[in-house]
Amino acid sequence: MAPEKAYGVLFFGKPPSGEDIPEDEIPGRLLFDRTPAYGPRAAVYVDQISVHSTGLVIHMECRTPGVEADLQEMVRGAFRVGVRTGGPAPLIVTFRASGRGNARSIGYWAAPLPPPGDWHLFAKWPDQGIDHCEWHISAAAFEAAKREIRPLWS
């Protein structure tokens, strides 16, 4: 699959009914190589990925060097993420965004969970010179994170 076709649908708001982030569990933490991607005017990295029983919470960080920029406008208009799996791509919803100075943090909810196996997280921010970057998620790391999920209440 070409990387462009892997980018998910992004919108601010709540996910479809029944696909909200579970509030009754402690998610697993996905451990993987979080090497930043650089463009001439910005950097992007994955802060963390939390694995829930029904989906993923993906926290991305977007930064520009030095001067304070209107990152909210820059990110809202052009920054995109996607997940490529061995099955259908999950729906990706932007649920949280915050920032200060030259940094912007964006939280995404991706549901349903990818099927077992390796998968890739993609990002692009063409306005800042980042046309495509990706992070490989191994099947072993994904399965280990799923085993960490714990109910919050019995």
Could you please describe the fold and organization of this structure?
The chain has one domain: Conserved domain protein (Immunoglobulin-like), CATH 2.60.40.1640. 12% of the residues lie in helices and 42% in strands. The chain is built from two helices and eleven strands. Strands 2, 3, 4, 5, 7 and 8 form a six-stranded antiparallel sheet that branches. A three-stranded antiparallel sheet has the order 6-9-10. Strands 1-11 form a two-stranded antiparallel ribbon. The longest helix has 10 residues, at 139-148. The chain is globular. The N and C termini lie far apart (42 Å).
Briefly say what this structure is.
This protein is mainly β and 154 residues long. The protein is built from two helices and eleven strands. β4 and β5 form a beta hairpin.
Biggest sheet overview: 6 strands, antiparallel
Q: Structural class per helix/strand content?
A: mainly beta
Unreliable sequence segments:
1-13
Assigned CATH class: Mainly Beta
What is the percentage of strand-forming residues?
35-45%
Number of helices: 2
Order of helices and strands: EEEEEHEEEEEHE
What is the 3D shape? globular
Roughly what is the average pLDDT, rounded to an integer? 81
The radius of gyration is 15 Å
End-to-end gap: 42 Å
Any guess at the CATH architecture?
Sandwich
Helix share, percent = 10-25%
Compute the number of structural domains: 1
CATH topology: Immunoglobulin-like
Kindly report the name of the CATH homologous superfamily. Answer: Conserved domain protein
